[in-house]
Amino acid sequence: MNAKDRELRNKAAATVEENEERVNQDHYRLNYHHMPPAGLLSDPNGLIQWNGVFHLFYQWMPFHTGHGEKFWGHCTSKDFVNWEQQPIALTPSSWFDKDGCYSGSAVVHDDKMYLFYTGNVVNEQGEGETYQCMAVSDDGIHFDKKGPVIHLPEGYTSDFRDPKVWEKEGSWYMVIGAQSKKRHGKAVLFRSEDLTHWELVGNITGSYEQKLGELGYMWECPDFFELEGQGVLIVSPQGLKANGMAYNNRYQSGYFTGTLDYNRGDFTHAEFKELDRGFEFYAPQTTLDEKGRRILFGWMGVPEQYEEAHPTIENRWIHCLTIPRELEWEGNQIVQKPLEELKEMRESVLLHSDITIENDQKGIRGVGGNSVEIQLEFENIEEQFALELFHYAAFSYQKKDGILTLSRPHLEDKSKTEFRRVKLDGELSQLRLFIDHSTLEVFVNGGEEVFTSRIFPQKGNDAVLFTSLGASTFSIEQWKLSG
Ligand code: FRU
User: Fold this and answer.
1) Which stretches make up the Glycosyl hydrolase family 32 N-terminal domain (predicted)?
2) Residue pLDDT, tens place only, 56-100
3) Which one of the listed residues 43, 159, 162, 223 is annotated catalytic?
């Protein structure tokens, strides 16, 4: 621990303490999601399970609600429900990461945990420099920085970051999010036999690669893994233009599936598909747990998407992570399911079966609340079905065209309503909603589509209203969720 590191840790602890009261009285604080004790939280980093303990790191700016010189916050859990806050894992205290310990990943090797992250540096000329760095730990709590293991190769700008490392047949691989000198987003592969010396393999895909055409000027936070034999590359490209119902957020996150030729460094894949349809979802990361499940956390935020308009800012905190989700491969796409362990949060249950609403809007006894899971199973929807949440957001389904719509007051201009939509392949059969004060995650038809969003209803509003055009018949199960 150098003097700068000590100073930053003390300053972070003092800022948290100073803001504690103000932060905690905010009625938008969350019950079962990860959020910053003060300041800004963004990408999940370094997800890994080690000796039964799950480690979750995240990008954290303790000092204010803007971005900047990020720390790696850290917490651990054995069951995904009860979490223990751990000491800060990385502070921007060294010459190679002085302007931010940016995103990265973790692996375990020879009974040690290795973190790989991007050291962000702004030099004296005001230019960006980027170093892919390594830090090692014997106990998973205290990390010893080893400095840069990769310097910026020829052909890329300094937007070169977010290393994700994995092992395949005895070798280590790393994929990095990059921008070529021509300003095209790329996913760049490296290989290593010892985690320290890395050899550049090349672009596995990217904007203007693999017959893709234009697909963004920068790719952030890549993640590569196999899901039931499919190669999956998740990336967060920047610079996609809105196209009908697609790409409506400022930046997107999605995936390609296909086959990676590790020797040639070539990923042959299908089209890019968005992972989420809501207003806030970005920079997800996955890991394989000890049971062989592929688990994902995402950031419930989007960079530069009216972050200044979030009402939590006046209480000195902003953003959170999603709930953990298990990824499965179903036919021709990834489906996302809330992690099984979250059922442990369920307290009282409420059940209504065989409800029919016809050309009417109404509440249903006991349904609502601000820390709940609500599951709806549909028997039949004649025309249109909608949920109005907390006199704030609405979620609706139009049978004729199969379109699902989430709407909420525009965060910047409250006189407007903003929408996110998707067209379902089949009919709507199930909705599973996770609500936590100022978050909403809706899993549609077993996770075939997901809408992740912040919601900012007025204090005390926790009513859910059901509307149907024509007749809708369904059942409801609702659980109050403990934190
Ligand atoms: C994505 C991102 C990453 C970067 C990090 C910095 O949200 O921009 O590319 O490493 O955030 O906090």
Assistant:
1) 33-338
2) 999 999 999 999 999 999 999 999 999 999 999 999 999 999 999
3) 43
Structural domains in the chain?
3-340 (2.115.10.20), 347-481 (2.60.120.560)
Regarding the beta carbon of 70 and ligand 1, being less than 6 Å apart is answered yes
CA nearest 161: which of 103, 209, 115, 236?
Answer: 103
Tell me what pLDDT residue 466 has.
98
Sign of CA dihedral 317, 72, 299, 480: negative
Residues near 407 by Cβ (< 8 Å), separated by ≥ 6?
A: 393, 394, 396, 417, 418, 419, 420
The 8-class DSSP code of residue 416 comes to: S
Between CA 368 and CA 388 the distance in angstroms is 10
Mean pLDDT value of segment 349-369: 96
Residue 411 CA, ligand 1 centroid: distance in Å: 22
Whether residue 118 has its Cβ less than 6 Å from ligand 1:
yes
Q: Could you tell which of 102, 176, 320 is best to mutate to test the pocket of ligand 1, judged by most ligand atoms within 8 Å of the CB?
A: 102
Question: What is this structure's pTM?
Answer: 0.97
Active-site annotation holds for 43: yes
Reported as a single tens digit per residue, the pLDDT across 277-309 is 999 999 999 999 999 999 999 999 999 999 999
Please state the three-class secondary structure of 46-113 as a single string: EEEEECCEEEEEEEEECCCCCCCCCEEEEEEECCCCCEEECCCCECCCCCCCCCCEEEEEEEEECCEE
pLDDT of residue 211: 83
* Interatomic CA distance for residues 130 and 247, integer angstroms: 28
- 19 in contact with ligand 1, CB cutoff 6 A: no
